[in-house]
């Protein structure tokens, strides 16, 4: 029912569930009891830095700059910032509110706020768990490059190595000579990956990468094994350090010849692009994926906040920092690419690319030609490591939070200590990540990333927004926030939740379906059986949404409309069934 409705004519048993006048003293007492049972961040800055570290990841460095220049340059800022305001900030505010109010992970929070879509919560856990199994592979690549960057001569600068195919190797960028590969590309393909011809040929483990993947998981475990208490301290370094490197690289890069041309290529507006629908869809998708909506990580991290923490302030800080970092990274990357184009006398668009190829092929080549490359190369790859670790902490924490919320007493009776639970999760993720460090692992990685981070996430995000904004309802979200903050959200947030956010996510979903293309890696096309495996990976997370709805309707006997209107999403039984109740 609506906030402020007249409850006096209700039967007494229904009035028990209705919204009552707020007793903030009682709320504060109950929230204090809840906080005593659940650990909290040591300070407000811990949560902010952890959230910033999660939102600001490798995608800010390798995805946004390329997307910006290919979608209208400086003109892309208009759709991008519009989507930040209309979609990113309101949805992040919504997730923070759910986590902080319920003091539960995404599974139990969604089971309480919208039982019909309780599968959405479980789906967020599954997608985060799958994501964490392969995302750490990028950290193993960063470690590989980091250790190789300490050599007197950077190994990706020359064609005179045992792994080079000398006949088609170029010590610089080959430009339009399509039969040639750069030495940096061959280092990535033949030294780092020892890449096979396709996913059909696994080729056995790359033992070097196996070792680096193991080290990556050891680092992750040591940073999170004490829960938010240890993570909250680590992010003071991992979330802040990359900015020192980005600014240092920017100052260095803008002094290089050709840097101006690269920056102009990045920011010069192409106003005609604003009339293309796909540019606006790309902007919305970038905001959505970058902030990390629908992964469950923001809900999990917010669940460790104190009840009255100012989440609106945190939302604005995280959103602004995320967008600022993307733009800053664009200047860093394109000033370097402009310099590289100048050195090799090539157009900028012959060098610009996106994805892992930008940071593991193009930028290493750029670093090798810079003055004092012995300093910049290790710092750059250490920065990548920090950016990736922040995001990895948050995704692993989603699975750990779910296990503690659902099976806590049972698991702790068996494992005795929470540190062992964290260790068990890390070991399982490490084992599931091994296919990615085989010689054919790059094909597995690309397949998993396409069907997890592209296909599954969009479906999941749509159902999350529908469950919270339309079924649970904007009045209840507003009341949750009023109880925590002392005032209701303004009309801007209520309008976004009610209309704009669901519509934008629906447009992204429809566009993703209409523009769907099968996964590919460069010119390699996956066989049909691999495509089916990819769809199976997508279904592993998505399937929990219909299964949860079917179970809820089965448990609440009655006609379909009855179940939908009263027993599953009835306002009287689902008004505020969360951590702090009247």
UniProtKB/TrEMBL annotation:
Keyword Hydrolase carried by entry: no
Record's keyword terms, sorted: Disulfide bond, Membrane, Metal-binding, Sodium, Symport, Transmembrane, Transmembrane helix, Transport
Transmembrane parts of this sequence: 47-65, 77-98, 119-147, 209-227, 234-251, 279-304, 316-341, 375-400, 420-438, 450-474, 495-517, 529-550
Disulfide bonds: 159-169
Membrane-topology annotation of the record: Multi-pass membrane protein
Domain of life where this protein originates: Eukaryota
InterPro entries: Na/ntran_symport (IPR000175), SNS_sf (IPR037272)
Binding annotation for Na(+): 53, 55-56, 60, 290, 322, 387, 390-391
UniProt record, GO biological process: amino acid import across plasma membrane
GO MF, any single term: metal ion binding
Example of a GO cellular component annotation carried by this entry: plasma membrane
PROSITE patterns cross-referenced by the UniProt entry: NA_NEUROTRAN_SYMP_1 (PS00610), NA_NEUROTRAN_SYMP_3 (PS50267)
Record localization: Membrane
Family affiliation: Belongs to the sodium:neurotransmitter symporter (SNF) (TC 2.A.22) family.
NCBIfam families, sorted: Na_transp
Name of the protein in question: Transporter
Higher taxonomy: Eukaryota, Metazoa, Chordata, Craniata, Vertebrata
Name of encoding gene: si:ch211-225b11.1
């Amino acid at each position: 029912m609506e906030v402020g409705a007249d409850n006096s004519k209700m039967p007494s048993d229904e009035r028990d569930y209705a919204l009552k006048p707020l007793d903030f003293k009682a709320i504060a007492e109950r929230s204090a009891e809840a906080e005593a049972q659940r650990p909290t961040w040591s300070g407000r800055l811990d949560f902010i830095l952890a959230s910033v570290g999660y939102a600001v990841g490798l995608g800010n460095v390798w995805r946004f700059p390329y997307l910006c220049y290919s979608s209208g340059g400086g003109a892309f800022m208009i759709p991008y910032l519009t989507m930040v305001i209309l979609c990113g900030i309101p949805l992040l505010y919504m997730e923070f509110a759910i986590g902080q109010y319920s003091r539960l992970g995404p599974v139990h929070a969604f089971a309480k706020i919208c039982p019909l879509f309780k599968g959405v919560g479980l789906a967020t856990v599954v997608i985060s768990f799958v994501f964490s199994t392969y995302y750490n592979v990028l950290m193993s690549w960063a470690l590989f490059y980091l250790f190789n960057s300490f050599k007197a001569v950077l190994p990706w600068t020359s064609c005179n190595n045992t792994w080079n195919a000398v006949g088609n190797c170029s010590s610089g960028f080959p430009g339009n000579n399509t039969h040639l590969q750069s030495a940096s590309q061959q280092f990535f393909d033949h030294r780092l990956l020892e890449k096979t011809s396709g996913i059909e040929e696994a080729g056995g483990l790359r033992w070097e990468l196996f070792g680096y993947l193991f080290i990556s998981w050891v680092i992750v475990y040591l940073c999170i094994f004490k829960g938010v208490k240890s993570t909250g301290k680590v992010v003071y370094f991992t979330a802040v350090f990359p900015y020192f490197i980005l600014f240092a690289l920017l100052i260095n890069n803008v002094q290089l010849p050709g840097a101006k041309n690269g920056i102009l290529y990045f920011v010069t507006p192409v106003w005609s692009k604003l009339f293309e629908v796909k540019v606006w869809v790309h902007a919305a998708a970038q905001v959505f994926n970058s902030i990390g909506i629908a992964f469950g990580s923001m809900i999990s991290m917010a669940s460790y906040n104190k009840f009255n923490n100012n989440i609106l302030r945190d939302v604005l800080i995280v959103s602004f920092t995320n967008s600022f970092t993307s733009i800053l990274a664009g200047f860093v990357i394109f000033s370097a690419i402009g310099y590289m184009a100048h050195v090799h006398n090539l157009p900028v668009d012959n060098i610009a690319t996106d994805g892992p190829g930008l940071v593991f092929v193009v930028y290493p080549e750029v670093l090798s030609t810079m003055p004092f490359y012995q300093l910049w190369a290790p710092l750059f790859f250490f920065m990548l490591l920090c950016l990736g670790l922040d995001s990895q902490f948050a995704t692993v924490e989603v699975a750990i939070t779910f296990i503690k919320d659902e099976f806590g007493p049972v698991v702790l009776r068996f494992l005795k200590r929470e540190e062992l639970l964290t260790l068990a999760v890390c070991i399982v993720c490490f084992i599931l990540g091994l296919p990615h460090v085989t010689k054919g692992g790059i094909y597995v990685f690309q397949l998993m990333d396409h069907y997890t981070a592209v296909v599954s996430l969009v479906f999941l995000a749509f159902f999350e927004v529908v469950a919270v904004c339309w079924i649970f309802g904007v009045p209840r979200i507003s009341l949750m926030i009023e109880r925590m903050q002392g005032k209701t959200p303004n009309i801007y947030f209520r309008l976004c939740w009610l209309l704009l956010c669901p519509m934008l996510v629906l447009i992204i979903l429809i566009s993703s379906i209409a523009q769907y293309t099968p996964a590919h890696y460069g010119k390699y096309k996956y066989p049909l059986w691999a495509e089916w495996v990819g769809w199976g990976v997508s279904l592993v997370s998505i399937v929990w949404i219909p299964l949860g709805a079917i179970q809820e309707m089965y448990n609440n006997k009655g006609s379909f409309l009855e179940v939908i209107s009263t027993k599953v999403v009835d306002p009287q039984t689902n008004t505020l069934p969360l951590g702090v109740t009247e």
